[in-house]
Structure formats: C-alpha cells, structure tokens
Write a structure and sequence with these properties.
about 230 residues, alpha/beta, five-stranded parallel sheet, four-stranded antiparallel sheet, 8 helices
Length: about 230
C-alpha cells in the first residue's frame, strides 16, 4: 500500500512512518495542508492519514479540497480531541474515519485497513466494478460480456488503479510511481507495454471500456455501460 501522511507534529509523523514501514507500507509525508492536498490529488495513494491540526490550512480544509476535486481516496483523520461535533464535521466533510490521539499501533493499522477496503465500487464477492467491467481482487481475473481473462501482477495493479480512478485522467508519472515505487527508474515504454497488453485483453472480453491516451498528459478510461 502507498500511504500519504499529512502530519505537522514531527514526533507523531516519525512514529507513524516507522509503523508503516514495519508493515510494508510505502509512504510519503507532508507537514503542511497545501502541500498535502496537492500531493493527495496526484491520485497515486491507496489511503491518506490526515491530521486535523495543520499550520495555515486546517485538516478539514484539506479534506474538503480533496473531496471537491472528485478524488475518492480513503481518508483517516487524526485529532488530539474527538468530540461528537468534531467527528460529525469530519465525516460530513468526506472523512472515512476519525481517530483520537494518542492511539494504539494495532488500532491505527486496523482502521487504515478498514477504510482502504471501502475504496471504489467493491462488491460483496470481492470484485471492483466500473461501467460493466469487473476485476476480481482474489483471482486477478478481468471480466465483461465476452467472458474473463487472467491478468499478470502488473496488469492487475494497473487495471485496479484505473478502475478506482474511473473516468478521471491518470498521469504517466502517477502510474509509474503507483506500480514501480517512488525511487523507480522504470521507463515509460515499460508502462506502455502493460497498457498494450490490457487493451488486447479488454478487446478479447468485448468490453466497452477503452484505455485512451491523452498525449503528454496520461491515460483515461472511456466508454462502458451503465
């Protein structure tokens, strides 16, 4: 999982960072609201941990910016106080969960896992569905009206990312980071090869979904049925 941590308190940020590393989560840390909001809207993260108390721009303001952009990334908010009114404001503004500091490590991981499972249109049988196209998260099979095809690990991660983005545009940079990591030197042609494979498989199952290339920008899912 790739986690964005937006936390102003350095000690808490270090603590959470170590916890995420121990649990094999890749994370990026931002200490201010404006930078955190911009980073979140890159679309490469599986979840965001967002502190309510941030300098210059409050956590609630950041939350509203992210949701206003149309991004559905799961967001777990942290606060030194979690009164009922605080939780209501946070949840009504688009937070997936609200957690009080200090916290137990196990609880933070459990809540992070819980909000992450809500991402996208996840069905009861563990499938991610968008406009008639279905991705089985257990078997790595992609299906539509023409049947189903198995996906490789990279094809699976790529299609999963596309489906959670919907019709939103995914930049090449965000896709490369999402699939190969922050420090990866993977060339764009490697990404294009996997997209070509996915396009062939979409045609094979007669899907109405197409992966459209927007020159010098990125890729976008188009088509599909209601």
């Amino acid at each position: 999982m790739k986690i964005l941590l937006i936390e102003n308190d350095k000690k808490i940020a270090v603590k959470i960072g170590k916890l995420l590393n121990r649990n094999r989560c890749e994370f990026f840390s931002a200490s201010c609201g404006e930078g955190g909001a911009d980073e979140a809207m890159s679309g490469i993260y599986d979840a965001v941990i967002l502190d309510v108390s941030l300098p210059n721009c409050s956590g609630l303001d950041v939350l509203r910016q992210i949701r206003k952009s149309g991004l559905s990334v799961p967001i777990l908010m942290l606060s030194p106080k979690c009164g009922v009114s605080d939780k209501v404001r946070g949840l009504n503004s688009g937070a997936d969960d609200f957690m009080e500091r200090p916290f137990a490590d196990a609880e933070l991981l459990a809540r992070l896992g819980a909000v992450s499972r809500r991402k996208g249109e996840l069905t009861a049988d563990n499938k991610l569905v968008f406009k008639g196209l279905s991705l089985n998260l257990s078997t790595y099979e992609l299906s539509d009206t023409g049947g189903c095809v198995p996906l490789s690990n990279k094809e699976f991660e790529l299609m999963k990312f596309f489906l959670t983005q919907g019709h939103n545009i995914s930049s090449k940079e965000s896709l490369l980071t999402k699939l190969w990591g922050f420090e990866s030197s993977t060339a764009e042609n490697n990404l294009e090869v996997h997209i070509t494979f996915l396009r062939h498989k979409l045609k094979k199952i007669h899907s109405g979904i197409r992966i459209h290339c927007i020159k010098n920008v990125g890729y976008q899912l188009i088509g599909g049925r209601e």
